[in-house]
Amino acid sequence: MPRLNLFGKSENKLRPAWQASVPDHTNSLAWSPDGKFLAAAAVSGPVTVFDAATGKPVHQLKGHGFGTAAVAWQPGGTLLASVGQDNKVRLWDTLSGQEAKALEAGGSWAEKAVWHPSGQWLATAAAKKVRVWTAAGELVRELPPQAGTVMDLAWRPGTNHLTLLAYGAAATYDPLASAEPVKLLAWKGSPLALAWSPDGRIFAHGNQDSTVHFWYYDEAHDLQMWGYRTKVRELAWDHTSRYLATGGGPVVCIWDTKASPKGPEGSKPQMLDAHDPESSLTALAYQARGFLLASASTDGQVVLWQPTNARGPQVGAFKFPEGEASVLAWSPDDKSLAAGSGAGGVAVFRAG
User: What are the pLDDT digits (tens) for 61-80?
Assistant: First the structure.
């Protein structure tokens, strides 16, 4: 555990609680709603459920043949959803550690799974298809095939609307009511990752062409930010919906949506620089209700930031001894941060 000289004294607000491992590259993490368990997926397939207090494995789930792509814990429930390269959506009973359902995702592979905040519906993406299921595994609706592979999807906060990101457009549906889009926002390009602001007013997407696009949804008004070193997959909103943190290189850029009456376009972002200049960010995560931001990078570091701290925004750091820091997830109470590594490491920290 590295120690940093912060604010003129030895202090680090990223304090390791435990470390464990999965068979190989950790590519997805999910906390149980009560914060008592942490699920970690290995890219080769297995999913391990850990006791979040001790780091001891509770269940070893077989995951998916050819590889698990993502795991998502049901809000307010005990189901863990997983998707993978075997074209399956699997629902796991985390009390027993047994598979409850195995569903057909609709494509050659499945990469995305997102629960509605109510925990009643699960949306999954496989190639150009998106299907919406009940928590019992019943198909609610298959949405029309998109123009390209669905790169990301997210429920619009405060609604039953689901936004899909694919080549050339972001399409929003009310899948409980219709297969026709509620709104289609066209954009000529290849988007990669999507994030809704918590207030549901703005969504942003990072793109293959090293840009970030903002959409003011109700007005169908868009802005674009450029100048990134690499394609942008890392996006994280703060809980006030004012600040958006973005990756696209080794430096965290934070855009202020209230920089002017017209939004962040033309403004200069806050830039947080602590990672190796030859590295690239792999994940960003804000607390759900606090002001701490975590970043992970190919340099193996997890860095904790408090961007509004006048004495210096960097308040903690940790470095995995092997492999990149690959994924991040805050616990439901914002008191713990989980991180995974490309070498199969899993670490939980007490933060703040």
Answer: 999 999 999 999 999 999 99
Range of the domain at 210: 13-351
CB atoms within 10 A of CB 268: 10
For the chain, the domain total comes to 1
Q: Is residue 1 part of a domain?
A: no
Q: Which residues lie across from 297 on neighbouring strands?
A: 281
263 part of a folded domain: yes
Cβ distance 316 to 306 under 8 Å?
A: no
- Token couple for 332: 């439901």
* CATH number of the CATH domain containing 62: 2.130.10.10
User: For 313, phi and psi rounded to 5 degrees?
Assistant: -75, -25
Whether 5 shows a pLDDT value over 70: the answer reads no
| Tens digits of residue pLDDT in 306-352 | 999 988 999 999 999 999 999 999 999 999 999 999 999 999 999 97
Residue 2 is assigned to a structural domain of this protein: no
